[in-house]
Structures are given as structure tokens and as C-alpha cells.
Amino acid sequence: MQVGQMIEWVAEQFAGADLYYGHGTDNPWDEAVALVLTLANIVDDQAMLAEALGADIEEQIRALAEQRIRERVPLPYLLGECWYVGYPFWVDPAVIVPRSPLGHVLADGLQPWRTAPVCRVLDLCAGSGSIGIIAALCYPEAEVVMVDIDPAAVALCERNIQRHELTERVRVVQADAARYLAEQDSQWDLIVTNPPYVDAADMATLPAEYRHEPKLALAAADDGLAVINAVLQALPGRLADGGILLGEVGGSAAALGRCHAQLPFIWLALPDGGEGVFVLEAQAVSAPV
Q: What is the CATH number of domain 3-79?
């Protein structure tokens, strides 16, 4: 079977199944393209559509397509990697699949909130390390510290740091994010965090695909604010002059705004999709929250 024919076959199977998309794609066709091109190890090029697939590759594609439908597993877990903001990352079920809008915000630049050079970055609740690594790639002079409480996530961060040849500038620490922040004497130009923020009501209605992701990386108590509240409490004094906190709380944005009505959150428009991304400037959090 040719590459294009296989993509069409997989897309038809996906379209006829009760699948939910949201782990790098948002429709059956793009999901089929990702599956076929990754396993065939070919680039996304019109000229490659007429290439013939080997029997072994075709068998692998069919098997993974059937598993995707039968078990509702996010495709990146089946492939062991994903592309995020144009870069490849190893993934596994120990961490959520990279999809945060924060990577796109970093890639688009942080102006007007940060115009000075970014030399020190802290990534809290790092997961796979994708956001911290994107920050390191966007700011080639910056030193980046990534923090995650889960040893499996820390191990995956280390693999991705090595994959992107960033071991001289990026390191990962196993620790509770808010506790680590509170215990530091350092200040950062940029702190990024995509913490667990799904509230109890939303956890109860998650599509099957999301239930393959670790609950530790998703759930944050009844209101979705347990982790971000702890980070905000530890934040005063941890941002350098002109520094910013760039965070994501998704559907818990309204709850966060009500809980901290005194804080001047800057909620960002997200042309690439997503919700609940904010900026807090250093001068806004100089006193205890």
C-alpha cells in the first residue's frame, strides 16, 4: 500500500470510531498523518505519498491504529514521542502529553512583558521537560532549572535534555514545586508553570484518552487551584526586577481570578488555541499573596 493510501485508510478508521483528539492533533486526518509518517519514518512531503510501504511497517501501522481505537490511548503514548512547537520530545504514560499553549507563547516572544535578556529560567511542574526546553531554545543564553515531584517525570526530562543537547544549560530537580520555590534564595527572570489544574467536576467527565494520563499531573483538588495557590504563596521575592511568571490554569482561570482578585493577572489571547494562560509581573507580587 502507498503512504497516501495508508493515511486515507487510517483516517477512515479513526473517523468511524468514538475517538477524542487533543494530544497534538484535533481531527482524524492529522492523527492518521502523524501515525503513518512517524512509523514510516518519512517527512511530511506531497512527493512521498506515492511511496510504497513495506509489509512490516504496514502491519505496525494497522496494529497501532487498532490499538488507538480499541483502548483510546493518546497517539503519542503509542509512538513514544510527539512534536511540540516544532521540536520532537520523548513521551511516556508517566507524564502528560505536551500540548500547553505556554510553548507557543515562549516561541512568539514575551514582549511587552519582558524586553530585557532572559538569563535565568525556572520551570515548575516540568513533566516531560518540553516547556523548559522550549524556553532554553528560545533564550540561548539562559540557564534553566526544571522541577517536578515525580521521579519518572524527572527521568524523562533528563532524556529530553540530552536529546536536545542542552545538558550544559538545563538541569532538572526532583522536588515539590512550591516548596522548592519557597526554599530558594535565587531570583529568576522568567518562571513558567503548567501545574495540575483540573478541578474535581472536570476530572469526573474527562474523555477516555485523558484517563491514560497520570492523575498526579492533572488533578488539583476540588477547585483546581491547590498547586498554583501554593506557587503564588511562594512567589514574592523570587522574580528578578522586570521578571515575570508565565502560567497556565486552563478552565480554572475564573476560579483563580476570584481567589486572588487583588492580583493583576494579564490573561493572554491564544491564537494557537487553549485557555487560562496568564502573566504576572514582578512588581505585582512583591508582597505575600
A: 1.10.8
